């Protein structure tokens, strides 16, 4: 088997937080700019945290400078930690634990994250459901604002964990949005799309993922992960 790097998206793929991330974003904008409605007109699906904040700042007529985004991010991470403490409807999606168990047992398989969340946000969400320690590395929204570039960074880190050249590795992106699929295609990776977020099977199929399942408990999903 080729050395394999798995890059997992978080929101809509591994888990759902019942809107905790959006609530924290709204509160961050309220504290920073007095505008809780900055993100009301767009979906967060597949966006990185920095891209969300940049879009929200522009939506309310503010300059989306790096300093402004950094200030908002610091507030957001603080408020997200608060939201996750009371997010009673946070849940792992069907088949996730079984998939993580199976890949952890497979030699030559590096299990990491490929997420638009900044690292601290990823930690807050995954710690809430007890799986943060399952991921040895990742590409995060604090590594790059573009999803394809953060995946490229995550893939390189995974190859380093395996002690293999990246070119020799099979890289697989697991996600629930068209942006996950497009970013995987942009870096030459396989994609496993799951309809556990906001997009149904038909919408994801239109993006031509390598594999497509209703959820990770579906027949063939583990085989697709393990190659």
Please tally the β strands and state the result.
Answer: 8
Biggest sheet: strands, sense, closure? 6 strands, parallel
Strand order of the largest sheet: 5-4-1-6-7-8
- The helix/strand class is alpha/beta
CATH level-two architecture of the largest domain = 3-Layer(aba) Sandwich
Please count the helical segments: 9
**Poorly predicted spans:** none
End-to-end CA span: 8 Å
| Gyration radius, rounded | 17 Å
Overall 3D geometry?
Answer: globular
Order of helices and strands: EEHHHEHEHEHEHEHEH
The CATH homologous superfamily of the largest domain is termed HAD superfamily/HAD-like
User: How confident overall, as mean pLDDT?
Assistant: 97
CATH first level of the largest domain: which class? Alpha Beta
CATH topology call of the largest domain: Rossmann fold
Strand content: 5-15%
Q: What percent of the residues sit in helical stretches (DSSP H or I)? A: 40-55%
Return the domain count: 2
Give an account of the 3D structure:
By secondary structure, this protein is of the alpha/beta class. The chain has two domains: 149 residues, HAD superfamily/HAD-like (Rossmann fold, 3-Layer(aba) Sandwich), CATH 3.40.50.1000; 66 residues. Helix content is 44%, strand content 14%. The protein has a six-stranded parallel beta sheet. Helix 1 packs across helix 3 and helix 2 crosses helix 3. The relative contact order is 0.19. It catalyses: 2-phosphoglycolate + H2O = glycolate + phosphate.
